[in-house]
């Protein structure tokens, strides 16, 4: 823990490219309140451009006071460290929920997915129509499943306005921000001032909710750029006829390639949602899904910790004070607990915390003895079985079900001595009063594999004499040509806009420059704008010689390229 102004930071719950988010407590009258504190990463703290971006996010976020948006209420600087304090949302993001459901072969129920989309549209409608302190129309520019928070209470909240801008502020196409997978063509082309930029990714989220797959999930970066500029939408894996017509009309209106043909506003899209007769407030159903997701994460964490404790009982992670040695990853998992009480959602009992802490050591001692005893029993039974099979005493062997419910295999009963010894095993455990025994959700399952049957001998095929093949003398291999030396070439668009070039048989995008390694020989260059479907008819030719670096100035509109030696 550490103190940052009025906030006590307990553990980090996430990090991104230029910032990290911490769980924190803020003192209030008679108690404390859980909050999330976003910090500018230390390696960017001294860079003016990143400080300006962080302060701009704080300025925009504190204007957005809406129940469908994560509320930011404080920002400041303490000893050179910038922070932004926001409300704490106990839940998961949409990407996490969908990924887990897809892994389990499930999809979001349609009425729940449409409810989430409607809440995101409500948040965007508020931002796009903001009128406060002279500001108007905040464009998010990074709407994605990772930035949609879902709470345990069934709330939907849009977050991370880190790259948001006001529509009356100029932006440059040189630095395109946002996630390529959910980006419309005009945003990649540097035109991100209109609110319709935020509506395309909402359609992409609706598409993947119905489809059950990540939007443009199979494409790499170069393929993504091509899909964006061409307006290609992945085909649905479900028959379109099975989608309600009102929802399919909404999906197509949001995903229109031409911004002028896209639905005009978030409010208009909300009206289209309301046309579906099954649209309703699905907060309760969403809350159940989020709670199941968090409980599953907690159970997996508990099982992992239990397995580690059983494998190494003396490890610090098996003691009550193990949280002192937690990694940041385990703290992130533990962040799903109730921040106001610090209690776990799984394994809660009616016992007091003091009583439970006294029972834990005795219970673990008992568990360690039982696990060791079971291991000895299984080893003894396996050895006796092998000896018995060697003596071929068939009539004396019978198959029985073991009494221990955790061993779901059949083992042979080997002599009465082993059986009598096994019946005395419970006496090895220390006496524990039944009222002190508290069941722990950390359960270790032991599996004993059945002996594999001996493989049957493979049939031996009769040898067949192969016909003699006349010896063929291979011709001498051709002399390999040495590859041409590579030269470093910087392609720059004169206008500073996005330009597409084809050189060496490959297509590249200049935004507004790109470095390429090319063979030191003559190269032809073709150019076009991203909005153009065909290449300029004129091919430019540049001559490259080894042992030099080059700078090639591209005139994308005229279709020319001029190379100059830089070193």
Helix content: 25-40%
How many strands, what sense, and barrel or not for the largest sheet?
6 strands, antiparallel
Strand order of the largest sheet: 1-2-3-4-6-5
Question: Alpha-carbon distance between the termini?
Answer: 53 Å
Number of strands: 23
Strand proportion, as a percent range, falls in 15-25%
Unreliable runs:
167-175, 317-362, 390-449
What is the count of helical runs? 12
Rounded average pLDDT:
75
Rg (CA only):
33 Å
Indicate the structural class.
Answer: alpha+beta
**How would you sum up the global shape?**
globular
How does this model look, in words?
With about 575 residues, the chain is of the alpha+beta class. About 30% of the residues lie in helices and about 20% in strands. The chain is built from 12 helices and 23 strands. The chain has helices at about 50-60, 95-105, 110-130, 185-190, 195-210, 220-230, 245-255, 265-275, 285-310, 330-335, 355-390, 415-425; strands at about 1-5, 5-15, 20-30, 30-40, 70-80, 80-85, 90-95, 130, 135, 140, 150, 155-160, 165, 400, 410, 485-495, 500-505, 505-510, 515-520, 520-530, 540-545, 550-555, 560-565. Strands 1-2-3-4-6-5 form a 6-stranded antiparallel sheet, with helices on one face. A 4-stranded mixed sheet has the order 19-16-22-23, with no helix packed on it. Strands 18-17-20-21 form a 4-stranded antiparallel sheet, with no helix packed on it. The protein is globular. It starts with a strand and ends with a strand. Mean pLDDT is about 75; it is low at about 165-175, about 315-360 and about 390-450.
């Amino acid at each position: 823990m550490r103190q940052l102004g009025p906030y006590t930071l307990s553990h980090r719950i996430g990090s991104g490219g230029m910032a990290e988010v911490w769980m924190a407590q803020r003192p209030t009258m008679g108690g404390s309140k859980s909050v999330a504190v976003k910090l500018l990463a230390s390696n960017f703290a001294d860079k003016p451009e990143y400080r300006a971006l962080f302060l701009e996010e704080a300025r925009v976020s504190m204007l957005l006071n809406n129940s469908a948006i994560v509320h930011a209420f404080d920002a400041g600087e303490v000893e050179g460290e910038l922070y932004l304090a926001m409300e704490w949302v106990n839940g998961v993001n949409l990407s996490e929920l969908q990924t887990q459901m897809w892994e389990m072969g499930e999809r979001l129920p349609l009425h729940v997915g449409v409810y989430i989309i409607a809440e995101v549209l409500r948040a965007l409608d508020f931002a796009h129509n903001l009128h406060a302190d002279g500001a108007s129309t905040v464009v998010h520019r990074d709407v994605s499943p990772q930035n949609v928070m879902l709470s345990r209470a069934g709330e939907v909240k849009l977050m991370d306005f880190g790259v948001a801008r006001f529509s009356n502020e100029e932006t440059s196409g040189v630095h395109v921000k946002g996630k390529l997978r959910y980006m419309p063509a005009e945003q990649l082309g540097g035109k991100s001032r209109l609110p319709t930029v935020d509506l395309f990714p909402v359609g992409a989220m609706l598409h993947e909710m119905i489809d059950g797959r990540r939007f443009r999930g199979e494409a790499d970066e170069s393929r993504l750029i091509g899909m964006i500029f061409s307006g290609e939408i992945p085909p649905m894996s479900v028959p379109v006829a099975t989608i309600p017509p009102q929802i399919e009309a909404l999906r197509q209106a949001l995903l229109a390639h031409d911004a002028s043909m896209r639905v005009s506003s978030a409010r208009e899209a909300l009206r289209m949602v309301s046309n579906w007769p099954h649209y309703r407030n699905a907060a309760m159903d969403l809350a159940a899904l989020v709670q199941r997701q968090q409980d599953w994460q907690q159970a997996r964490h508990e099982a992992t910790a239990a397995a580690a404790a059983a494998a190494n009982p003396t490890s610090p992670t098996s003691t009550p004070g193990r949280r002192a040695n937690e990694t940041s990853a385990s703290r992130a998992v533990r962040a799903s607990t109730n921040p106001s009480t610090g209690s776990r959602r799984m394994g809660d009992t009616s016992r007091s915390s003091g009583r439970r802490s006294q029972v834990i050591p005795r219970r673990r001692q008992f568990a360690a003895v039982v696990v060791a005893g079971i291991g000895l029993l299984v080893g003894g039974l396996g050895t006796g079985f092998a000896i018995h099979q060697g003596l071929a005493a068939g009539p004396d062997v019978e198959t029985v079900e073991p009494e221990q419910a955790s061993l779901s295999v059949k083992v042979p009963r080997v002599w009465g001595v082993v059986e009598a010894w096994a019946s005395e095993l419970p006496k090895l455990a220390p006496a524990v009063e039944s009222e002190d025994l508290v069941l722990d959700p950390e359960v270790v399952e032991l599996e004993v594999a059945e002996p594999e049957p001996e493989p049957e001998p493979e049939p031996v095929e009769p040898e067949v004499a192969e016909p003699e093949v006349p010896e063929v003398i291979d011709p001498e291999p051709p002399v390999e040509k040495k590859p041409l030396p590579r030269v470093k070439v910087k392609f720059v668009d004169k206008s500073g806009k996005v330009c597409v070039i084809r050189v060496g048989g490959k297509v590249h995008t200049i935004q507004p420059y790109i470095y390429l390694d090319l063979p030191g020989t003559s190269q032809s260059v073709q150019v076009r704008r991203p909005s153009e479907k065909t290449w300029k008819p004129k091919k430019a030719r540049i001559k490259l010689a080894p042992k030099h670096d080059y700078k090639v100035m591209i005139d994308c509109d005229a279709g020319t390229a001029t190379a100059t030696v830089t070193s």
